[in-house]
TrEMBL record:
Gene3D superfamilies on file: Aldolase class I
Organism of this sequence: Botrimarina colliarenosi
Coiled-coil annotated residue ranges, if any: none
Protein name: Aminodeoxyfutalosine synthase
Function: Radical SAM enzyme that catalyzes the addition of the adenosyl radical to the double bond of 3-[(1-carboxyvinyl)oxy]benzoate, leading to aminodeoxyfutalosine (AFL), a key intermediate in the formation of menaquinone (MK, vitamin K2) from chorismate.
PANTHER family: AMINODEOXYFUTALOSINE SYNTHASE, FO SYNTHASE (COFH)
Cofactor, how bound (note): Binds 1 [4Fe-4S] cluster. The cluster is coordinated with 3 cysteines and an exchangeable S-adenosyl-L-methionine.
Catalytic activity line of the entry: 3-[(1-carboxyvinyl)-oxy]benzoate + S-adenosyl-L-methionine + H2O = 6-amino-6-deoxyfutalosine + hydrogencarbonate + L-methionine + H(+)
EC number, UniProt record: 2.5.1.120
Length: 381
């Protein structure tokens, strides 16, 4: 049933209903407080249901942050540590293998691996993180390294990004997660993470990964010092890459958590409200017309907002998750892990049909002795 549109959204509603692409200015309208959120959400839901029907995707996954010691000092980061700090750690082979064994015992199909750039770690150590896990637990998909890490490996080895990615694929890398994107616009990026891989390098890494046949995710860190125009610029840059390669599979809007980090403390920033979170979800679904999936990462949003997000553009809530540090260090109060029964109940309560997928969006069917993978789930238009 078509509802009457508020005046400000009428032209955008027409475009969305006709399946037309939205412009930068349309994005700013969607961001404006005069655009009623329920209506923005309804439009996003239209696109979400066109692409993904009533599916509510999740996976069984775990995290590995093999070190938190980092040469960089991104002002939003509560996870990093210096070598001399008590919280600094660096995992060696046994601990990494133990994490793999635990993952497989828990039925995980994916391990999400990112971490600090330890000044004493050689490239071979980072490669070994991947090869150890892949050789010993070949059913585990390794979604690992952001462009910040790939760029660092390129500096360590003095080899191009393409060489690093090829070498990582040979070691067992399965795909790239979405991190390290933050805000692409230089006005903001230089204030929050001046030294690490810049926007050009982020795109070069993902573009090269896609050329090599890897899929990747993408993110945006919102709710700090950026403005609406920086967020829309960010989404349009991602949309342009996707037009070029088609390799992005999921976009995850990341709500800034202000605790225990310089950016939050110095600027007295409060965590984004649920209404801001829902608007970011919906705007992304509407602007990223060529990306199949939008993820409401429950660890970061909280379970209630993630459930609501399934009606505001999102079709995925990430996984059961285990060993998450980045958000919990920055003040997240969500549980550290959710059982399959609970995650399915959360999705069902939101009115969606829970579907277990693997990292590459193939349907997972559980069997008595493990799981089998179906065809890639194809999104609609
Ligand atoms: O790049 C760091 C963000 C990202 C904070 O690909 C923070 O499936 C909020 O990329 N407040 C890493 N955000 C996490 C990430 C991710 C998460 C879930 C799923 C996937 C995926 C990727 O976390 C970093 C940065 O943007 N981050 N500190 C903070 N204080
Ligand atoms: Fe280091 Fe990553 Fe934290 Fe930046 S976000 S300080 S690169 S661990």
């Amino acid at each position: 049933m078509l509802r009457t549109s508020s005046e400000i959204l009428a032209p955008i509603r027409e475009k969305v209903e006709a399946g037309e692409r939205l412009s930068f200015d349309d994005g700013l309208v969607l961001e404006s407080p005069e655009a009623p959120l329920p209506e923005v959400g309804e439009l996003a839901n239209l696109v979400r249901e066109r692409k993904n029907g009533n599916a509510g995707y999740y996976n069984i996954n775990t995290h590995l942050n093999a070190t938190n010691i980092c040469v960089y000092r991104c002002s939003f980061c509560a996870f990093r540590s210096d070598l001399r700090e008590a919280k600094g750690y660096w995992m060696q082979d046994d601990a990494i293998l133990e994490r793999g064994a635990e993952a497989v015992a828990n039925g995980c199909t994916e391990m999400h691996i990112v971490g600090g750039l330890h000044h004493q770690a050689k490239y071979d150590w980072y490669r070994k993180v991947i090869s150890l896990l892949h050789d010993n637990y070949p059913t585990l998909h390794l979604k690992a390294w952001t462009p910040v890490e790939i760029d660092w490996f390129s500096r360590l080895t003095k080899k191009p990004i393409r060489w690093v990615l090829e070498d990582q694929i040979e070691a067992g890398l399965g795909s790239l997660p979405g991190g390290g994107a933050e805000i692409f616009h230089p006005e903001i990026r230089r204030q929050i993470c001046e030294h690490k891989a810049d926007t050009r390098r982020w795109f070069e890494t993902h573009r090269t990964a896609h050329e090599l046949g890897l899929r990747s995710n993408c993110t945006m860190l919102y709710g700090h010092i950026e403005e609406a125009r920086h967020r829309i610029d960010h989404l349009i840059r991602l949309r342009e890459l996707q037009d070029e390669t088609g390799g992005l599979q999921t976009y995850i809007p990341l709500a800034f958590h202000p605790e225990n980090n310089k950016l939050g403390i110095d600027n007295h920033i409060k965590k984004p409200t649920a209404l801001m979170d829902l608007r970011q979800m919906a705007v992304a679904r509407l602007m990223l017309d060529n990306v199949d999936h939008i993820k409401a990462y429950w660890i970061m949003l909280g379970i209630g907002t993630a459930q609501l997000a399934l009606a505001y553009g999102a079709d995925d809530i990430d996984g059961t998750v285990r060993h998450e540090l980045i958000y919990h260090d920055a003040g997240a109060t969500t549980p550290e892990v959710m059982s399959v029964a609970d995650i399915e109940a959360v999705i069902r309560e939101a009115g969606r049909d829970p579907i277990e997928r693997d990292t590459l969006y193939r349907k997972v069917d559980r069997t008595a002795d493990g799981f089998t993978l179906g065809e890639k789930i194809t999104a609609g238009v």
